[in-house]
Amino acid sequence: MKHYEVLFILKPTLTEDEIKERVDFVKEIITKNGGEVASVIEMGARKLAYTIDKYERGVYFVIYFTAPTSLIEELVRNLRYNEDVIRFLTVKYENKKEVAAWEKLSKGIKFSPARAPRKPRKPRVEENIEASQKEEEEVQE
C-alpha cells in the first residue's frame, strides 16, 4: 500500500455538522476501498489566494492515509462531483525520504528538512598573511 495525503477545501457556508459529514464521507470512501486513515488534520477557515466560485474563504482539511493505487481514482471521482468541495489535491509519497516525512506529518509533527552540517570555513590566503604579519609584529614588540 502506498502513502497518500489529500487536501481539500470545503465551502465556508457549511455548518459544523455538515462539515463533519463531508469529512466523514471522505474517510468512508478511503476505508471502504481498502485504505487506512492515519490522521485527519483540520486547518480551519482560511482566506483563499484568489476567489473560487465566488468564495473568498474556505475550510481546509488534510487527511493522511495508506491505500492501494486503485482507490485514488474513486476518491478523485467522488471529490470532483461533490458540490461542497471547492478544491482538492492528492499527493503520493514514494521514496524513503518522502515516506519518513509522511510519518512525521501524519503524527502532527512539523516537518523541517534535515540540513547537512556546515563545514568549517577555510581562511582565505589574505587572512593567513595578515594573521602571520600580526604575529610577527607581536613577537618583535
TrEMBL record:
GO molecular function annotations of the record: small ribosomal subunit rRNA binding; structural constituent of ribosome
**Signal peptide (from-to):** none
Its GO biological process terms? translation
Q: Which stretches does the entry tag as region Disordered?
A: 113-141
By its UniProt entry, which Pfam families does this protein fall under?
Ribosomal_S6 (PF01250)
Role played:
Binds together with bS18 to 16S ribosomal RNA.
What family is reported? Belongs to the bacterial ribosomal protein bS6 family.
Q: What is this protein called?
A: Small ribosomal subunit protein bS6
What is the source species?
Answer: Campylobacter ureolyticus ACS-301-V-Sch3b
